[in-house]
Amino acid sequence: MKTSLVKYVLYDILQNRIVIAYTVFLLAVSMGLFALSDQPAQGLISLLNIVLIVVPLVSLIFSTIHLYNAADFIELLAAQPLKRSAILWSEFWGLSLAMITAIIIGVGIPVLVYAPNPTGFSLLGTALSLTLVFIALAFWASVATRDKARGIGVALLTWFYFALLYDALVLFILFGFADYPLEKATLALMSLNPIDLGRIIVLLQMDISALMGYTGALFNALFGTVWGIIYALSIMLLWVAAPLYFAQRIFRKKDL
Amino acid sequence: MNHLNHHKDTLLQPVGLGVLSSSNTLQTVEQGHPQVAPLQAPALEQGHPQGAPVQAPNSEQIPRFAGMTTTPHMLITDSLVKQFGRLRVLDNISVQMARGQAVSLIGPNGSGKTTFLKCLLGLVLPDNGQITFDGESMLNNPALRSRIGYMPQISRLPENMRVGQLFDMIRDLRKGNANGYDDDLIKAFDVAAFSNKNLRTLSGGTRQKVGACLAFMFDPEVLILDEPTAGLDPVSAEILKEKVLVEKQKGKLILLTSHILSDLDELSTHVMYLNEGRMLFFQSMEDLKAQTGETKLTRAIANIMKQSL
User: How far apart are CA A23 and CA A108, in angstroms?
Assistant: First the structure.
């Protein structure tokens, strides 16, 4: 990876002011929610729900559109004496740096002001990991499909699936197989959705796992807080690495 | 004189298919001979001398292009195949090109010219076949691209940058492996006048100018120009053509496509004719003109096309 290349990618991203608008939006929402709630914990719960919906959506869609728009830029770079992998990684780190900065300012500062406790920081950690996961998924989607509209469609469906559809499916399975011992299966199902993992990381910290019912209690019992978080984070890391791996495999052989 | 030495050095490297090194040296001196760039009929002075003295011992490996065995081949493709879905865009392209040649790729739309050029650059990866550059495989070897300058058909440039920033960036990314730095075109096109403009706002012709400057900027040994004059105003097109001629005299290998055959007539020493992904012939201009009995490339090609139909 070339650091100088990351610099230019980052510059390219900051030129359109979406990332800045995103930062301001996050900051306003976080500050607003904390200011409106009586207790910081209440604010955190509200913020958690926003973060779990908005962060994946914005990371995914913005990254996908950026990658399609950067096709010219990428083609120009690919004709230079640069490795394909260097180009892909520079794009990844450029996007990640921009989005991570947005989260740190937009979520990190309010958390530091209103709720500087483990729960607050776990929320920040969740937001950051979800950002990386969904940027990685965006890479996969946009490298795999040549057509822009189709790529964005795939990205939107991915978000829709993880944010909304997945929980419905899990509920359906839980009700359908209620007569069977489903503890371990539920755990596995949860690992298959990074958004669920993020929710668990925060809720475990809040010591309100009972609120998540069955799965949360189970999760807590199986792992305890510390191991639960380590497990969730490592699965999350896998969720970043796997899509990037597939993206790079395709990109290495892609005709530009 | 710098160039002369430079070429001798690179010639000492192994060349893909067996070619006698003694004849190489002889050729180099002839080809690298610094001439005051004449503007017309360079084809007659360049190319391979008639009755070249030494035959390569294993010339049967290079059967199709008689006469080429005497020149040191710089860029060799061996049975290059590329398929887009069911469509065979490149079908077994084997060709050998040497320094000092200016090769025109001619063929109808969709005959695979751009795909061939993109294969050489590694922008399109061939399904089969080999590309060698001074004896080294081009595939998975991005470092070799530092010796190639590429001007794409439509100069697709990053939208969010200013012209000056783009030049700075490319200079920054290619520093360290530059052969040298050549700002002739940057001056001739007066890039400074619009270096503060955003790339998104540039007209097609101005984009082409930027693309041309980027291709020539690092004084590369190989120039790949895809429709270089398309969209340029007559004055700029003339500047670019003169620059191509100058670089050819320096002994560089130039590959270019154009649908304006009269442009190619002035510039090229060889013609590579593609049709539906197949290479119908690769010939020197003299041979082509002699064979068809025509003096103009336009007529010669028309002649060939009629015959092949």
Answer: 11
